[in-house]
């Protein structure tokens, strides 16, 4: 049996903990409320100046900038979150004014120094700020940060590099998809896509990478950014790449690029025997290409055993113009199999209602 | 003869005394263990929350809103007799901040004009349809409806009544995007909800299989246009207790489990899944009353049986406050809810009993499931046994009165400590409740929870277990909802 004395002591300890926790909860709330009101009070006079800075003409900005630059550290700390939030939302002269304000306050230099901080949150925030400021000289440091031990920091670095838009970072971003410390593929894709045509040759180099993920990302970026000069390389990937995910991305990219060179490989990709996910995406891409010559194979696919393949083919036919629509109406009149009739009717009915669900991506992996 | 009888009686009394003393000690230790378990989960959750909070400022949500690479989502909303609130719910969903998503409403044979309400609100047209059978469906889809002429991403399917799980399966089959989000028709989502819950998929797309979001108690909150604009702790005691309970169990408990890779429950009110993973395991189980949790356990089971280890996949709980649901405001409805929950848990544990204690399933089999068996499944039994055996022990002299009242107070204080830690973490991290009045209200909830409420829920849960073991027919019953809009009270079914 547990000794009575022990229970009494435990009881007293627990009551003390209850009391301390109650104090802690009210304390946390009290301190936060106090800090918030103090911050509001301190920032209020300068916030109006900040808004004025954003709205005023260029020649009048200088005086306001001088004024805001001279504010003490406490006031700047209270104002800085507002400035950071605005920086991501404004453009043109207003943005330039905010960047200038940051530079005069010495923030970029602090942020670059913070990239080497032992604190992960500090490194991530620094990367974010440098990205927002489009601080080009930070690119080498941000490239190093792509190998940071913290996953969120790596992603923040990739996003920052995308914002800065210096294509020097392209090979680093592609390399960041390798190894144990990979950067999230979506962050890399978005960053590479934001570089535009300047990065095409660097991105296309990724098509020869041994890692399927790198090849997939490179193809996705080339497709999204309209790199028609690299169509043939993407066609080769669709035909020859051993990885299905890469082939899927290639099919989708060819649909986006809309070049006639994509037609033949896409027609080959929709044939029975190919992976279902590839057939679905390739069928959708044929619809995007809009080539009437794709009508017969797509019409055939209406009777496919896989409803996703057949459904995508039906919706692709609708996008091929009169020839495709005629083929659908034919199928709807029960001239093909039962499955084809149902799919054709569904697609035509959706089109008639105006709510066509053409972008079927159900089987596309993330 | 009499002396022998007395001796026998004394022997029996001694044995009984010893047994009851042993049981009482076991109950005391159990009570300590269960609260310590919750405390450990709370502390694990705290580490996770601190990590996330420190990274929130550079999490990249703005980029996700604008980015063409954010994975599109099919939001599946099963509805049964939700005519009063369905249009408001769909409109609120359409306003979510997310670059690409569709809403699939599955009307599970409603009899109150749910479909008519949607047809009128969104100018729906019935269209011919083909529903793929990627996962099995019981109720036949009788019609499919799309908005006329507009780019509104809403699809409404009408099917024969088959229950929530079956309606979800229809939604999964109709979904065209790689992620499916399952929400209740009465869930109130914050505008950032999809962004928040999809973030782990963007950050770690090769491993994340499912994510769940925090569900808060909407009672007492100010709701405008289907959004909680001001979170408040309800004024009634029942609501206050549930707020604390949700904080401790659903917010911090699940965050703690997620931290150690042992998350077993993603609430049906708001969860996001890879569609291909859900299809691979056969969709929702229409025979299980707790189909949401059952799906998560089945995903774990499937992935482990495929040879994937703990580090090869992730089922994540997102800590940011994002979804709100109306909690029962009467004991009658609460009783039914808890009975159903416990029945669901029992059915899941029975169905997947092979996983319990099985090293093949890693920490799911060795830690998470045994925890649920000992501290969730058995809890009502032990608590009610304690209510009987401890006073009996006092009567028989096996437990001293002095010891009893001190122990009862200590147990009460320990349970309060666990709840207060939850409150402190919430206050530090998200401080959703803005008024001081809400803090006092939550304190009342903490103080009152162990005075009758816990004992009542133990009884209802015991009845839920009984239902599961005896396979009594699944009776869902009607749930009276107070509602949030100006229309006031509305009735619905708590089936969905």
Write the layout of secondary structure elements.
The complex is a heterodimer of chains A (366) and B (496).
Chain A: H1 4-55, H2 58-69, H3 73-87, H4 92-104, H5 107-114, H6 120-132, H7 139-145, H8 151-164, H9 170-175, H10 185-195, H11 200-205, H12 212-224, H13 231-240, H14 244-257, H15 263-269, H16 276-289, H17 295-301, H18 307-318, H19 322-335, H20 338-353
Helix pairs in contact in A: 1-2, 1-3, 2-4, 5-6, 6-8, 7-8, 8-10, 10-12, 12-14, 13-14, 14-16, 15-16, 16-18, 17-18, 18-19, 18-20, 19-20
Chain B: H1 2-55, H2 61-66, E1 73-79, H3 86-94, E2 101-108, H4 114-122, E3 124-127, E4 141-147, E5 154-159, H5 164-174, E6 179-183, E7 188-189, H6 193-203, E8 208-217, E9 222-224, E10 227-230, H7 237-259, E11 270-274, H8 275-280, H9 291-305, E12 314-325, H10 331-351, H11 362-377, H12 379-396, H13 401-429, H14 436-469, E13 478-481, E14 490-493
Parallel strand pairs in B: 1-2, 1-6, 2-5, 8-12
Antiparallel strand pairs in B: 3-4, 4-5, 6-11, 7-12, 8-11, 9-10, 13-14
Helix pairs in contact in B: 1-7, 1-12, 1-13, 7-13, 7-14, 10-11, 10-14, 12-14, 13-14
Can you give a write-up of this model?
The complex is a heterodimer of chains A (366) and B (496). Chain A is extended, with a radius of gyration of 29 Å. The model of chain A is unreliable at 360-366 (pLDDT under 50). Chain A is mainly α and 366 residues long. Chain A is built from 20 helices and no strands. Chain A starts with a helix and ends in a 13-residue tail after the last helix. Chain A has helices at residues 4-55, 58-69, 73-87, 92-104, 107-114, 120-132, 139-145, 151-164, 170-175, 185-195, 200-205, 212-224, 231-240, 244-257, 263-269, 276-289, 295-301, 307-318, 322-335, 338-353. By secondary structure, chain B is α/β, with parallel strands linked by helices. Chain B has 14 helices and 14 strands. Chain B has helices at 2-55, 61-66, 86-94, 114-122, 164-174, 193-203, 237-259, 275-280, 291-305, 331-351, 362-377, 379-396, 401-429, 436-469; strands at residues 73-79, 101-108, 124-127, 141-147, 154-159, 179-183, 188-189, 208-217, 222-224, 227-230, 270-274, 314-325, 478-481, 490-493. The interface between A and B is large, with 66 and 68 residues.
